[in-house]
């Protein structure tokens, strides 16, 4: 492995992202990629239950309602939970690129405290691609898509093969996911090209 770059700025030679021709249409709900995902999974009791939609170009939007289970300080969202919401939203750009990728670096700015019960409106887009490296950025706004900015993130995602999950995941969950009789759910748990 070469030494990771210390910057989230795309290097010279990086190219603009390309929306996959089979990407979900702008406005389409992406749904959970895996029911147990802490970011979007429907069956994950304390998860964030993010609802994410494809956007124009290589972008997505998402809504996260902050619950009491997500507190850090009394009545306020935990910073790590907010980082998760940003990470998940940027990760969902995989569906628009149709490329499987995982987070390599994530840098967050916390601008405003986010109270429990807030609807945090997130938007994310890919800014550049360089080889397997995908550069993304996201913003979370309070109360509305044009509300005050509460959090921001820049991230570097690294493209991986589906084997990344099968080889590294715990056997119990990998087997359960692969044995799901619903073949669409099986595909969605591991890939973005079902
Ligand atoms: C299915 C759809 C899912 C959508 C939702 C996603 C949910 C949210 C996303 C996540 O939270 S994913 C979970 C958190 N992330 C991880 O668990 C990743 C753990 N890390 C790894 O598995 C490996 O380190 C990784 C796959 C990221 C990279 O290992 P590799 O051996 O494949 O890559 P390699 O080391 O060859 O590096 C490839 C390039 O990326 C660069 N790179 C790798 N890791 C880096 C890093 N951390 N920071 C900066 N650069 C990095 C590396 O320098 C190099 O650049 P160059 O091509 O220019 O030489």
UniProtKB/TrEMBL annotation:
Report the superkingdom from the record.
Bacteria
Record InterPro entries: HotDog_dom_sf, THEM4/THEM5_acyl-CoA_thioest, Thioestr_dom
**Coiled coil stretches, renumbered:** none
| CDD domains noted in UniProt | PaaI_thioesterase
Q: Which reaction does it catalyse?
A: tetradecanoyl-CoA + H2O = tetradecanoate + CoA + H(+); decanoyl-CoA + H2O = decanoate + CoA + H(+); octanoyl-CoA + H2O = octanoate + CoA + H(+); hexadecanoyl-CoA + H2O = hexadecanoate + CoA + H(+)
Instruction: Give compartment(s).
Output: Cell projection, Ruffle membrane; Cytoplasm; Membrane
| Predominant location | membrane
Which family would the database say this protein is a member of?
Answer: Belongs to the THEM4/THEM5 thioesterase family.
UniProt-recorded name of the protein = Acyl-coenzyme A thioesterase THEM4
């Amino acid at each position: 492995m070469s030494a990771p770059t210390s910057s989230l700025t795309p290097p010279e030679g990086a190219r603009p992202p390309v929306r996959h021709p089979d990407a979900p249409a702008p406005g389409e709900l992406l749904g959970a990629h895996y029911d147990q995902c802490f970011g979007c999974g429907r069956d994950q009791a304390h998860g964030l239950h993010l609802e994410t939609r494809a956007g124009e170009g290589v972008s997505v939007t998402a809504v996260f309602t902050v619950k009491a289970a997500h507190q850090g300080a009394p009545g306020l969202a935990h910073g790590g939970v907010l980082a998760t919401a940003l990470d998940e939203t940027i990760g969902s750009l995989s569906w628009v690129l149709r490329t499987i990728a995982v987070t390599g670096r994530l840098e967050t700015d916390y601008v405003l405290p986010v109270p429990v019960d807030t609807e945090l409106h997130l938007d994310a887009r890919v800014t550049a691609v360089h080889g397997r490296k995908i550069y993304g950025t996201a913003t979370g706004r309070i109360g509305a898509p044009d509300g005050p900015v509460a959090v921001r993130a820049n991230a570097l995602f690294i493209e991986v093969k589906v084997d990344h999950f099968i080889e590294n995941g715990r056997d119990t969950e990998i087997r359960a996911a692969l044995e799901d009789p619903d073949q669409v759910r099986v595909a969605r748990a591991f890939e973005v090209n079902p």
